[in-house]
Amino acid sequence: MTTEIERVVFSEQMKLADLIDVNFKLLNVLSRLGISLGFGENTIKEVCERQGINLNSFLLICNIYTYDSYMPSADLLAGADPATIVDYLHNSHAFYLGKEFVGLENNLSAMVEPCDELQKKIVAKFFSDYRTQVERHFEYEEDVVFPYVQSLIDGGRHESYSIEQFEENHSNIDETLNDLKNIVMKYLPETCDTVLRNEVLYRIYRLEEDLLKHTLIEDNVLIPMVNKMEEK
Amino acid sequence: MKPVHKKVLLIIPSRIVARGLEAVLSELGEFRVEGILSDLSHASEARLRNMDADVIVIDPLVFDYVSRANARARLAEHSDAAVVALKTVPMEEEQIRQFDGTISMYDDPVAVVRKLRESLASHEETPESEGHDLSQREKEILVCVAKGMLNKEIADRCNLSIHTVITHRKNITRKTGIKTVAGLTVYALLNNLIDSNSIEL
Fold it and tell me: Which of A109, A113, A181, B173 yields a CA-CA distance of 20 to 30 A from B91?
């Protein structure tokens, strides 16, 4: 965790490679925004311009991802582009469902291999229920929230919906993942291989942190941006 | 005889305020600050569980406005210490009531100590569960939860008040770290507390 004192302010003149060196977890952010590796000595600004990515939005996402208590300034928010944020959130959903959950499911089933049939079934069911819960949460955002934001960007108005409802609907799915973590760490039988178990735990910890940042981007970037657009 | 200090944990984002409170308490004895956390991140929660504090003084600002209403309950998941709110911002009556006491930034040191003492006393009146392992009663209630029973049904079955059932459930969650009904069901199954036939899989 980076503290306030060590804080390196991400600026547009920074080399993209240095940005990753400060926080390697930003590799995820790059791939979700369609930035490929092999960017040489290019700065953040150069890469964003070449890829057609809104610079302020990129800096916002990277800051939230890196600093725990970061709250975006009104200026940075005003200069960011909601479409880029939505795009990022949408690609993150695809990444969780298509990559992370598939990987976690595979790791889990390898881990419970030595367990009895009932134990395997219990763990598989718990995970699949969790996955369904997350899918439903994402579906709501994909089907209701993102189209609504797009309609505001296009200058439309929807009297029947406002982003306030999104805040209310914003259910917490992190508790179930936290439970899975405790079950894997504390309550599965000792017959499960420790290395395989570690792999599952590393994955859960990473996913947990990633989902937390995802929520922060929704709460501290997307919602204030949409509030501003709704005022207009 | 050496006086026994009560252990205090501060969860206060402002270092100035936290250090100030620490200094005030150390001058008067009786309470001693053993730890300072500036937030409630996952890492802090783990430290909270292992601190074994008698009193927690928390600045409600560490919670955002929405989760502030459940601040006390969130702390109870990790610690059975008395919780005192430091009033840094105006708080609604409802929010204040969840804490065992409140102190103000402008209280004089003697008043702070008195309030901590009172909070500790009022907190000790409520039944708390000792140790890390689930008690027989807690196991019984866990099984009911895993079977999908509601608090009211559990209270009737076990001849307890709903309030007591809720206290037991909080203690179960604090001990196991598991919050959801689905997770508690898995716990019960893995520990052979229930028969898989009584659950839909």
Answer: B173
